[in-house]
Amino acid sequence: MTSTHPPSPARALVVGATGIIGQALSTQLVEAGWTTFGLSRSGGAADGVTPVVADLSDLDGLRTALEGVDPELVAITAWTRQETEAENIAVNGAAVRHVLAALEPSRSVRHVALMTGLKHYLGPFEAYGTGDMPDTPFREEEPRLDHPNFYYAQEDELFDSARRTGHTWSVHRSHTVFGFATGNAMNMVLTISAYATICRELGRPLVFPGSELQWNGVTDVTDADLLAEQIIWAAEHEAGHDQAFNIANGDVFRWRSLWPRIAEHFGVEWEGFEGAPRPLETAMADSAETWRRIAEQHGLVEPDIDRVASWWHTDGDLGRTVESLTDMNKSRAAGFLGFRDSRESFFHHVERYRAARVLP
Description:
14 helices; 2 domains; single chain; two-stranded parallel ribbon; alpha/beta; Rossmann fold
């Protein structure tokens, strides 16, 4: 396995630095000695990261904001959900194109990592889990589906840039992400934890919100820190160049086994799947005042439940009616051997949120 470590000091740009993956990756890059820049609209960034404020839809603004950044590694971990897949393709494809075009004049970029996900295999929101899909576990060599998909559009922009400028690339297809991020609500660990905390406050059971298949079947997830490790590995090793890799923790579990452990951890009773999904978006529709009260009682840093939990996002993951499992053999054979215990990953991040006073 050949290492291609860039010369010191290496420079990295994380696009989407305030997201759950962007925060994890930025932190690891700083700890590894990279000079790290974090691009976001808000200007937020992890400790040790130089913030870059820009809008991915504004090419001229990006050119100005990125002047002098000159990264060797670019990691694109951001996307913006739109009403239709056609809009997703236009907006998110353009985001990749704009970032790479803005950096092209400096000729500094050596590797670009793009984070996508399992909609590569399952289809976009408008055709999710329909038609002919590959068998599980999903493998990277599967052909693209017939449906238009913004992940494909992002990949094509990445490939076009690589052909023009000669940089290497990697694509990282994650499953549901477990991780730690502040100011980012699209996080299943924090959403379920906030739900359990509200249930405890109101004396309600922790009701599994998803489908029968997700309750009884096996699934896998991706730890945000593990995904960050794979991105850095792919940038630094020839075996990671010009390849697409699945990234999951390497184990499988059933929610019917993990759910009681979560309930016990938060000191609440629980209920499993009973006849039909019971979505969080409905159950938690009036939870804002309860969370505000909890935050005040415990001195939490965020009293706005909409900045803590994303009910629709977790409903989407737990409500799937198709099996979702990924194969990690390609990544292992190439030399990336990282793994996580998914059950321990969940509770590890819960404790990080407690330490940060996001959870009581």
